[in-house]
Amino acid sequence: MTEEKKYFYGPVPSRRLGLSYGVDIVPFKVCTLDCIYCQLGKATDLTVERREYGPIGPILSELKEILAKGLKTDFITIAGSGEPTLNSQLGELIDGIKKITDIPVAILTNGTLFYKEDVRADCAKADVVMPSLDAGDAETFRKVNRPHRDINIENLISGLSTFRDEFVGQIWLEVFFIEGLNTDSVQIAKIRNAIERIRPDKIQLNTAVRPTVEPNIMRLDNEMLQAIAVQLGPKCEVVADFSVTHYGKFPENKANDVLSMLKRRPCSLDDISSGLGIGRNEAIKYIRNLQNQGLIHAEHKDGIIFFKAN
Ligand code: SF4
């Protein structure tokens, strides 16, 4: 799978999913949150409003073409350079995917909109739903996730809890830990209480192993995460990738263009996007892939993330 694709990317190896074939369904950094650990930069559109983001027919046509050539992947993963449940055609898209393939569908979501019945109904069409929970109370939620004013932690937890009552598929909850922010024993106890209400099938622990939008985000080491995993119970596993040894197959030519550009000078996402005449969504996929291969890294300067070749 080396040909260039408009909507899909990968398959890429994922510690959480095996081989994952991704599709982004919201524009860059359209999100309900503005997490301090986000790798994508500052939120460009902080919103809770679900919208259509273009027809889904072309997405399904592209998938059909790829399937006809023989796609090998463990999951089709609906993600986004933002929050995918903000796309109001999510359910229609999953229905369309299910009509043309038996490959299981996973959704990566921040979980904030599950208090809405239509979001729960759409997500219930997937096989695996992978929400996030990084705080056990409102204050920590504000500090870590910097939500839209209409989003609150109680709605997040009760929304996911209601979804659990309704959904027969798998829920794999990710908890992202940042040293000094959500790692003290009180916070861990509150997170554990929230997990008991949500009743996920798996709890997957992560930390800031990659460059984040805000500087000074302190990651935990593997031993600290393992110690928290013990406190959160037997369904808990550490998924943080401390080795950074993923090698995904990708549109090599464009990825090479990005790499050559970064070998000449550090560039922001906008520099890469305008310099190569590609969308920001597309640029971020090449950046992620090059980061996963350990070929580039990110540095902060005056609130902007610059990418540099290693
Ligand atoms: S939910 Fe995801 S995309 Fe949105 S700000 Fe947080 S990390 Fe970034």
Summarize the helices and strands and which ones pair or pack.
Elements: E1 8-14, E2 18-24, E3 30-31, E4 45-46, H1 57-68, E5 75-79, H2 90-100, E6 105-108, H3 117-123, E7 128-130, H4 138-145, H5 153-166, E8 170-177, H6 185-198, E9 202-207, H7 222-232, E10 236-238, H8 252-264, H9 269-276, H10 280-292, E11 296-301, E12 304-309
Parallel strand pairs: 2-5, 3-4, 5-6, 6-7, 7-8, 8-9, 9-10
Antiparallel strand pairs: 1-2, 11-12
Residues 31, 33-35, 38, 40, 82-83, 110 line the site of iron/sulfur cluster.
Written description of the protein model:
The protein has 310 residues and is an alpha/beta fold. It folds into 2 domains: 8-249, Aldolase class I (TIM Barrel, Alpha-Beta Barrel); 251-310, Winged helix-like DNA-binding domain superfamily/Winged helix DNA-binding domain (Arc Repressor Mutant, subunit A, Orthogonal Bundle), CATH 1.10.10.10. 36% of the residues lie in helices and 19% in strands. The protein has 10 helices and 12 strands. It has helices at 57-68, 90-100, 117-123, 138-145, 153-166, 185-198, 222-232, 252-264, 269-276, 280-292; strands at 8-14, 18-24, 30-31, 45-46, 75-79, 105-108, 128-130, 170-177, 202-207, 236-238, 296-301, 304-309. The strands form 3 sheets. The chain has an 8-stranded mixed sheet, with helices on both faces. The chain has a two-stranded parallel sheet with strand order 3-4. Helix 9 (269-276) packs across helix 10 (280-292). The model is unreliable at 244-250 (pLDDT under 50).
